[in-house]
Design goal:
- The complex is a heterodimer.
- Chain A is an alpha+beta fold.
- Chain A has one domain (3-27, 37-90): Folate-binding fold, CATH 3.30.2270.10.
- In chain A, 15% of the residues lie in helices and 37% in strands.
- Chain A is built from 2 helices and 6 strands; from the N terminus they run βββαβββα.
- The radius of gyration of chain A is 14 Å and the shape is globular.
- Chain B folds into 2 domains: 24-72 and 182-250 and 342-408, FAD/NAD(P)-binding domain (3-Layer(bba) Sandwich); 112-175 and 253-339, D-Amino Acid Oxidase, Chain A, domain 2 (2-Layer Sandwich), CATH 3.30.9.10.
- Chain B has 10 helices and 19 strands.
- The longest helix of chain B is centred in the N-terminal third of the chain and has 16 residues, at 122-137.
- Classes of the chains: A alpha+beta, B alpha+beta.
- The A-B interface holds A 1-2, 14-15, 18-19, 34-35, 38-39, 41-48, 51, 53, 68, 70-73 and B 237, 239-240, 248-253, 297-302, 304, 306-308, 341, 397-398, 400.
Chain lengths: 95, 413
């Protein structure tokens, strides 16, 4: 059993969680070109290494951010999403 | 010829016949460099040599021949897709598979079994009807069948109503087949090598040199190679090579696991798939039950196996086949797949002029090996993708022209 540390519920079986994709910076919907928008929707960094992702704890519908290593499978850290929005310029995905 | 056999057995001159030449020295330049010596890369090399007279080709692989996803899939061949673009593409592949053993002079153990996609809900039955109509319109043999036909086609199947998901019917695709996946790679490799293609195993690509929007050289851990054009066929690691070429892909690398049982006497003829139960199962030529399920729930560059997978798979499988309750699982493994948002592959040209891509093979790559090899060879030789590949171009994501095949993926993901 793989354990994920939920910032709200503590350590739980990973089967209680779902991955909801990479943390990406959303382009400004008013000024973004169709190309920028398609990039945002479909393109993935898909790194072999550390990735920042949105995860959800399904039973409690709690969303948070996880940093994982996609080669070793190690979950490096998890934290509430508000930490992202406290950062200057909302440097999403940058740690 | 028993006497000849006896003489041969007692004789001392038994020269082993080498079907693949030893890995040669890497030359400083090739007309075409193919990255990835799996079924797809080797098939492209084979058809480039056979159909287009291009034999100055190096096929590079960081591991060994056919050691990646080619040897890790569940070897199912079918054309019962949902979109007309998908059906046409996979139907051409199924047709090529049918004649592949004699074409290559190598037995790929192609075996037509019939393919049943079980429907456990009204919604699944509707999708089955939709697929059957699209298939028939394009000349692909598919039909919706009910429980009576299922009882005849697969008597072992549990059709009782006393289960979580009773079977309501199925999409029946008689040409559904299985083959020996390694043999497909070996057959193409031997055919390509005979025509002068060089296969360089244990040769890792470390970088791509560009000048004026073109790749001028492929850098490897055995030296640099100047090249006319480059084809990447490394599903599972597609992003890593595309990063070197400098463009982005709509792909996530996700493990897909599978397992086989101990060998049993032949008892299961058709290939059985259940989307609702996330299971597919067939019996191979040597009697093992080959079983697969849903892709892993998150991205990972790893081929590790998990207990979660085998536990979920066997639980669901026993609902369909209670008779397997005492059968042992012998091996479990994983491959790394390229999952795309629309469950269709990415093939053809890229933003880099002489760099071509064969990627986006999520759970549907093996069955496309011949058609993809043949048509990618055509793309590399002529510099333009043929009509059959056009819907799968990389630029479709920017044109909002996806080819949605989720409804025909073997299991829900």
């Amino acid at each position: 059993m793989k354990i994920m540390d939920c910032p709200l519920n503590g350590p739980r079986n990973i089967s209680e969680f779902a991955c909801r994709g990479e943390v990406k910076a959303m382009p400004d919907p008013d000024t973004a070109s169709d190309r920028d928008w398609a990039d945002y929707l479909f393109m993935q960094s898909n790194p072999a290494g550390v990735v920042h992702e949105w995860w959800i704890h399904l039973p409690s519908s709690y969303w948070f951010i996880a940093e994982r290593d996609t080669v070793t499978g190690e979950i490096i850290k998890t934290y509430p999403p508000d930490e992202l929005f406290k950062r200057p310029n909302r440097q999403l995905g940058a740690s | 010829m028993p006497f000849a056999l006896l003489r041969y057995g007692l004789g001392r001159s038994r020269e082993p016949q080498r079907e693949l030449p030893a890995t040669p020295e890497l030359k400083s330049s090739y007309e075409v460099v193919i990255i990835g010596a799996g079924g797809h890369g080797l098939a492209a090399a084979y058809y480039l040599a056979r159909d287009h007279g291009i034999t100055d080709i190096a096929v590079l692989d960081k591991g060994y021949l056919g050691g990646g996803n080619t040897a890790r899939n569940t070897a199912i061949i079918r054309a019962n897709y949902l979109t007309p673009e998908g059906v046409k593409f996979y139907a051409e592949s199924a047709e090529l598979f049918r004649g592949l053993s004699s074409e290559l002079g190598f037995n790929i153990m192609y075996s037509e079994r019939g393919h049943l996609t079980l429907a456990h809900t009204d919604a699944a039955l509707r999708t089955a009807r939709w697929r059957a109509e699209v298939n028939k319109h394009l000349g692909v043999n598919s039909d919706v069948v009910g429980p009576d036909d299922l009882r005849r086609l697969c008597p072992q199947l549990n059709l009782s109503g006393e289960v979580r998901f009773p079977v309501l019917g199925a999409l029946y695709h008689p040409p559904g087949a299985i083959a020996r996946h390694d043999a497909v790679a070996w057959g193409y490799a031997i055919g390509a090598a005979r025509r002068g293609v060089e296969i360089h195993q244990q040769t890792t690509v470390t970088g791509l040199k560009q000048k004026g929007g073109k790749i001028t050289a492929v850098q490897t851990d055995r030296g640099e190679i100047a090249c006319g054009s480059v084809l990447q066929a490394v599903a599972g690691s597609s992003t890593l090579i595309a990063d070197m070429a400098g463009f982005r892909l709509p792909i996530r690398t996700v493990p897909l696991q599978a397992c086989v049982s101990q060998p049993l006497k032949p008892f299961l003829n058709p290939i059985i798939v259940s989307g609702s139960l996330h299971v597919y199962i067939s019996q191979s030529g040597r009697g093992e039950l080959v079983m697969g399920g849903a892709a892993d729930p998150y991205a990972l560059y790893s081929t590790r196996s998990t207990l979660d997978f085998s536990e979920a798979l066997t639980g669901d499988l026993l609902e369909l086949f209670p008779c397997l309750s005492t059968v042992k699982v012998m091996r479990q493994w994983a491959g790394m797949t390229d999952m795309t948002p629309d469950f269709s592959p990415v093939m053809g040209k890229t933003p880099v002029e002489n760099f071509y891509i064969d990627a986006g093979w999520g759970t549907w790559g093996f069955k496309a090996t011949p058609v993809c090899g043949k048509r990618m060879a055509e793309t590399v030789a002529t510099g333009a993708a043929p009509e059959i590949l056009a819907p799968f171009r990389l630029s479709r994501f920017h044109e909002m022209a996806q080819v949605g095949e989720r409804g025909a993926a073997s299991v829900g993901h």
